[in-house]
Amino acid sequence: MILKRLAVPVLGLLLAGCMLLMLVHPASSLTAALRGLSIWWDVLFPSLFPFFVISEIMLGFGVVHLFGALLDPLMRPLFNIPGAGGFVAAMGYVSGYPVGAKLTAKLREQQLISRVEGERLVAFTTSSDPIFLLGAVSVGFFHDASLGLVLALAHYGGGLIVGFLMSFYGRRDKEAPNSVSQSGKPAPRTTVREASNELHTGRLRMALRSMAEARRKDGRSIGELLKGAIQSSLQLIIVVGGLVVFFTVLMELLDRAGIMSSLFTFTDRLLSLAGFPEEMSAALVSGLFEVTLGARSAGEASTSVPLQFKAAAAAFILSWGGLSVHAQVASILNGTGLRYLPFMAARLVHALLAAGLLLILWEPVMNSGLSVSLRSLPAAAGLSSPVQGFAFSLSLLAMLLIAASLLSLLILLLRRMQGLWQRR
């Protein structure tokens, strides 16, 4: 209670201090603002806006409900969330932050998930997109495409582990069942082949029925749906841009005030006590605020630092997300009833897991020769064509959804076969 009372005056003092620093350093503030605006316009707008619009349209057409029914047998036992969370996870991993948070908020608004399920879902679906991880970080910052595989395994593997750990979160809370969590029970006295056929047709029929019902409830025409998707997506992308510009200016002002150098010194001592290279302090402190700056600083660290420690720092930064991403997610979750603190705790756990996984996987992955295969991907080519990168993201999304759907049907089939064998 005391902390809540102190939060407003403390925040007011901090903002007043920022205003004073802006008056003292107007040219630096303007330069930083233009730099943040350039990042938003050149990188974030073309990469995020199309996925914002696509996700809105898919919600209106009931595609999310379709995959919700198909993926429920997979998502329930693994992550303790409805099947619609599988679609959110695929979109979040392909599109990057904050698409997962946006879709989670939409599911919450449509009452497809409970509050606890939403907090579980947003905790592990907020991640970097593979285009940025492979193209910008591996190739652009580290100039080594072979790092892409180990970075991807550490980052996305850590996210899935966080999702599994979050499945135990809030189990004591009483949750109302939602419409997409349905389970198919085996019909008595059927053969394994009949059970398999009935399983596939029954699950697909239920999924298509859920999609049709969602489309009927939405009721908007294609033109109205497209208009609404563009309007809401523009509002969100402008909020994202404003936060990017704000944190870019904030970091510049903190640097001018000497606060960043103090943070560097403090982090140096912590890294030294932990047995890690002190030169990574600049990357970690920059990554605390903004992902791109932190990852670039990790790639440009001193050559005396072993490459695996640089990559571990990059994995930590990508998984943490930066306070800029945290602010974006907090603004999206505002008004949905979903709390920010579980998300922040999950980001910290994800960051530690990703860094640890990278150090563990470094030798077996980098010595296996598999990392070289990533050079054939569009991201490793430098992403010279935005259309090529967008097509790569869509194809990856399709592969993830198809693989998850097949795995979900396989789980149902195994359950049905087990039930048949137990009756014999």
Alpha-carbon distance between the two ends: 61 Å
Order of helices and strands: HHHHHHHHHHHHHHHHH
Number of helices: 17
Taken as a percent bin, the fraction of beta residues is: under 5%
Report the major sheet.
none
Low-confidence stretches: 176-199, 378-384
C-alpha-based Rg, rounded:
23 Å
Mean pLDDT: 82
3D shape? globular
Number of strands: 0
Describe the structure.
The structure is a single chain. Helix 2 (26-61) packs across helix 5 and helix 3 crosses helix 17. The chain has helices at residues 2-24, 26-61, 63-79, 84-95, 99-109, 115-124, 130-141, 147-166, 192-218, 222-256, 259-274, 281-289, 291-299, 307-320, 322-333, 340-366, 386-423. The relative contact order is 0.15. The chain contains 17 helices and no strands. With 424 residues, the chain is mainly α. The protein is globular and about 75 Å long.
Which features does this protein show?
globular, 424 residues, 17 helices, mainly alpha
Q: What are the SSEs and their pairings?
A:
Blueprint: H1 2-24, H2 26-61, H3 63-79, H4 84-95, H5 99-109, H6 115-124, H7 130-141, H8 147-166, H9 192-218, H10 222-256, H11 259-274, H12 281-289, H13 291-299, H14 307-320, H15 322-333, H16 340-366, H17 386-423
